[in-house]
Design brief:
501 residues, alpha/beta, FAD/NAD(P)-binding domain, Arc Repressor Mutant, subunit A, five-stranded parallel β-sheet, 31% helix, EC 1.5.99.-, oxidoreductase, FAD/NAD-binding_dom, Thioredoxin reductase
Length: 501
């Protein structure tokens, strides 16, 4: 390293990671910002590929001015050498070694080579992922997740199809439906399993977050402008097609959450964008032994986890949107900078962000409760032939047999008996669906590795003890984003040195 400043490794360059990196870099800490994408922004500020020549990328985004401020701040810190941005790095493990935390990441699309960053502290801003629930026909080409459709639109400037149905539940469905409609797709319907009565119960929470109320009203108005039918308390029962999706059957739900007899309708479409909410990414936190609070990582008022030297912010602590992520990231960055430079953090300095955080946490907690209070008996519609684990092609009937005949009483035993969750994704996509079909509690799995890693990477020899950091003969120069970075390709290295190109 070129200086003696403490190093903070921020994992994830979405709203939370960017806010944390800017706050920490402005207060005397060297920041290494690591992300799997080619450009900063995360899913919320996902940018079109440069080669596409997008003229008005802001048309696909909310809060574009906030993004411009974040981007300008990041550029300034990159120019000054206070932040190093490592893109196309897929972090698979964080371990403690000789008083430091070492972040291991696979390189680029092939992910066959691993590099590492040594830091004094780590801030986890790893975001969330979509909750996927199976139903008959969900494996047909043309069925995508709601977030996947949004990613295609933002990052690839492409539509997943010409005629779409957006279905499932949760706040994400509104921006996905309006985004597809605005981009030229015919949205045949927005099918939402929740109903207005349940959401009305959280009216007090809406009143406490007027900006969110205004955002929801604006999206609803855009939906009406595009004449998109909204079907509340409805659900997709089945997707139909031979080689790809051709139509879906939807039905109204009764008070018990079951399809009402005679309410079935068939909608023609070539795309079904379906989502059932988001779950926090906690794999790296699990590997570090961080305590969980429900589905997310537990943090204190400073966004510190219970593991020394590890902070967490954004969706990894609980799903709540970009504004909440920005507030948590700002607090985490300021707290980490203070403690790494030997100062006592002053909560008064981040009081506005703390108020925003507390208000939005309460809002999203009420919103989650409103959606959860409206039952949907989705497992009853999953036939025994429906695949629930796509990696291992495990049908629902095998899961039910493991529970009913073989006596499996927990998700781990179901996995051992059926192989559901043993594929490439290691259950990250199918866990919710398998747990629902099995009737087992969805308990977080402790995984040492956050993603599949080549055996050659795991077998690579560790750096010999006593080697001076920064003196490896394997040192190479790499370009990430728009600045050059010098780092090691050996398994254990110091924080990379970066300058703008």
């Amino acid at each position: 390293m070129s200086d003696r400043r403490p190093v903070l490794a921020v994992i994830g360059a979405g709203p939370a990671g960017l806010a944390a990196a800017l706050a920490a870099a402005a207060r005397g800490v060297r920041v290494v910002l690591t992300d799997s994408a080619a450009e900063a922004g995360g899913q919320f500020y996902r940018q079109p590929a440069p080669g596409l020549g997008a003229r008005r990328p802001q048309a696909l985004h909310h809060q574009w001015r906030t993004w411009e401020r974040l981007r300008a701040g990041l550029d300034a810190h990159l120019d000054a050498g206070r932040v190093t941005h490592l893109s196309d790095r897929h972090v698979w493990c964080v371990e403690r070694e000789s008083g430091s935390l070492v972040v291991h990441a696979l390189l680029g699309p092939r992910q066959a080579e691993s590099v590492a960053v040594r830091a004094d502290a780590v801030l986890l801003a790893t975001g969330g992922y979509e909750k996927v629930l199976p139903f008959p026909g969900w494996t047909l080409p043309g069925v995508v997740t709601a977030g996947g459709a949004q990613a295609l639109l933002k990052g690839g400037l492409s539509l997943p199809g010409r005629t779409a149905v957006v279905a499932g539940t949760g706040p994400l469905l509104l921006p996905v439906a309006t985004g597809l409609a605005a981009a030229g797709a015919q949205v045949a319907a927005l099918v939402e399993s929740a109903g207005p009565r349940g959401l009305a119960r959280s009216a007090r929470a809406w009143a406490a977050a007027p900006a969110k109320l205004a955002e929801g009203a604006a999206l609803a108005a855009r939906l009406a402008l595009h004449r998109v039918p909204v079907m509340v308390r409805h659900v997709v029962l089945k997707a139909h097609g031979v080689d790809r999706l051709e139509s879906v059957t939807v039905a109204a739900l009764d008070a018990d959450g079951r399809p009402a007899p005679g309410s079935e309708r068939r909608l023609s479409c070539d795309t079904l964008a379906v989502g059932h909410g988001l779950l926090p990414h906690t794999d790296l936190a699990d590997g570090l032994g961080c305590r969980l609070d429900g589905p997310g990582v537990w943090v204190d008022a400073e966004q510190r986890t219970d593991v020394p030297g590890v902070w967490a912010a954004g969706e990894t602590t609980g799903v709540g949107g970009a504004t909440l992520s920005l507030a948590e990231g700002h607090i985490a960055g300021r707290s980490a900078a203070a403690r790494l430079t030997g100062r006592v953090p002053d909560p008064a300095g981040w009081a506005p962000a703390a108020r925003t955080r507390d208000r939005l946490r309460a809002f999203f907690s009420a919103l989650d409760a409103a959606y959860a209070a409206q039952p949907v008996r989705w497992t009853e519609q999953v036939t025994d032939e429906t695949v629930v684990c796509r990696c291992e092609e495990v049908p629902a009937g095998a899961v039910r047999e493991a529970v009913g005949t073989l006596g499996a009483g927990d998700l781990r035993t179901v996995k051992l008996l059926t192989r559901a969750g043993m594929g490439w994704c290691q259950g990250r996509m199918c866990e919710s669906g398998v747990a629902g079909v099995a009737g087992c509690a969805l308990t977080p799995a402790r995984r040492l590795l956050a993603r599949p890693v080549p055996l050659g990477v795991l077998a690579a020899p560790a750096e010999p003890p006593g080697r001076t950091p920064g003196r490896s003969p394997d040192r190479t120069s790499r370009r990430t984003s728009d600045h050059s970075v010098t780092c090691h390709t050996s398994p254990h290295v110091t924080a990379c040195e970066g300058t703008r190109a």
